[in-house]
Amino acid sequence: MLNHGPTRLLAPSCFSEISPWAARVLVLLLLALSAYGVGLTSSRDLIADTGRGEDAALYAGIVRDMRGGQGYYAAAEAQLRSRGYPMKSVFNWRLPTLAWIFAFLPSDRAARGVLGGLSMLAIAAWFAALRRSLSSRAAFAGCVVLLGIFAWPFASEAYRVHETWAGIAIALSIAAAALDCPVAAVVAGLSALAIRELALPYVVVAIVLSLRDPRRRWATAWMVGFIVFCLLFRLHTWMVANHQMVTDRAQEMSWLDLGGWWFVLKTAITNFWLISAPAWVAALVLPLSLLGLLGWRTALGVRVSATGFAYVALFLFVGLPFNYLWGLVYAGLAPLGLLRAPAVVRDLLRRSLA
User: Fold this and answer.
1) Is residue 10 assigned to a domain?
2) Could you give the CA distance from residue 210 to residue 217 in angstroms, rounded to a whole number?
3) From CA 250, how far away is CA 87, in angstroms rounded?
4) Comparing C-alpha atoms, which of 299, 287, 134, 284 is closest to residue 206?
5) How many separate domains does the chain show?
6) What are the backbone angles phi and psi of residue 54, rounded to the nearest 5°?
7) Prediction pTM value
C-alpha cells in the first residue's frame, strides 16, 4: 500500500536523540554558514567571472568537424587552438565519449532527444525510489526538486555540455541502486565517468557503499570499471600529448584555486531552479539542503548525502571561477535534502531547547 501521508517524511531524524549542546552547535553552524553565504553574495556577483561562455560553441565545433570526417583529437586540437583555450592541461581536452555519441547520431536534435529521454527515464526512476524510501507526496515533491537537473536537456545549449550528461547519468545511477537494479546503477555510473572524469567522486562513493553490500560482485564490477577507465584515461593523455606543441606544454595552469564556499555557491547555481534566482537564495538553500541530507539515513539518503558532500568538499579546494558548470554533476541532487530538512530542523530545535 502506498504511503500518501507525510509520516515518513516528517519522521524523527537521526538528530532526535543527540545532546542539546551538539544540537546547538549544528543550529549555530547552519545560521553562520547561511549568513556567511548571504554576505558573500551581497558583495560579489555569483555569475561574474564565469569565463567567455564558449564551451558549448567549442563542443559544437568539434562535433561538426567530426561529422565532416576528422578524428576527435584532430578536431579538438583545431577548435581549442583557434578559440585560444589553454592546451597544456589534459582536462581541457574533454574525453572523446560524448563527441563520438554526437557524431554517431544524425543530428544535434537527435542527441538532445537522447538526453531528454534519459532525463525522463531518470525522473521516473526517482519517483519510484522516493516513494519507496519516503512517501508518495515526497516522491512528487522530490521530482519537482529534481527538475533542477532534469530540465536542462530542454533548455538552451545545456545538452551540449558534458557535465549535464554526467549529472543525469549519476542521478540515474543513484535511483537505480535504490530500486535494487545494480546492473543499471553500474552502467549509468560508469557511463558518467566515461563522459566526464568529474564523475570520479561519485564512483568512489559507489565503490565504498558497494563494499557494504553482501553481493560483493557489484563492488567488483565498480572496481573493474574504474580500472578500465584509468587505463583508457592514460591512453587519452597519450593521444593528447601527440597533439600538443612544445609551447602548449610550457603553459602553466592549475585547477587548485581554494575558492572555498564562494566557489561552492557558484557551482550550486547550476541548478535549474537557482540559476535565475537572486544569489542569496542559493546561499540559504545549500546549507539547509546539506543539513537535510545529513538527517536522511535511508540507503537512498546515504548515497545522495555522500555524493553531495563529496562534491562540496572537492569544490572547496578545486576549480577556477569559470569552472562553475562543474556543479551540474551534483547541484540538481543536493536540494533533495530539503525533503528532510523540516524534520531535521524541528529535531535540532527541540534538542537545543531541552
Assistant:
1) no
2) 9
3) 9
4) 299
5) 1
6) -100, 0
7) 0.93
Asked if residue 29 belongs to a domain, the reply is no
Q: Residue 333, SS3?
A: coil
Residue pLDDT, tens place only, 129-159? 999 988 888 999 999 999 999 999 998 889 9
**Looking at residue 2, what is its pLDDT?**
40
| Alpha-carbon dihedral sign for residues 289, 294, 298, 300 | positive
Domain that holds residue 165: 36-352
The pLDDT value recorded for residue 39 is: 94
Domain assignment of residue 3, yes or no: no
pLDDT band at 249 (very low <50, low <70, confident <90, very high): low
pLDDT digits (tens, 9 = 90+) for 324-351: 999 999 999 999 999 999 999 999 999 9
If you compute the radius of gyration of the chain from its CA atoms, what whole number of angstroms results? 21
Residue 86: how many other CB atoms lie within 10 Å: 12
Q: Is residue 297 part of a domain?
A: yes
DSSP 29-55: HHHHHHHHHHHHHHHS-TTSS---S-H
Mean pLDDT score across all residues of the chain = 90
List, in sequence order, the alpha helices (H) in the chain: 20-43, 55-67, 72-82, 97-104, 108-133, 136-150, 162-178, 182-195, 200-210, 216-242, 246-250, 260-268, 279-294, 299-315, 341-352
Please check whether residue 199 is in contact with residue 173, taking contact to mean a CB–CB distance below 8 angstroms: no
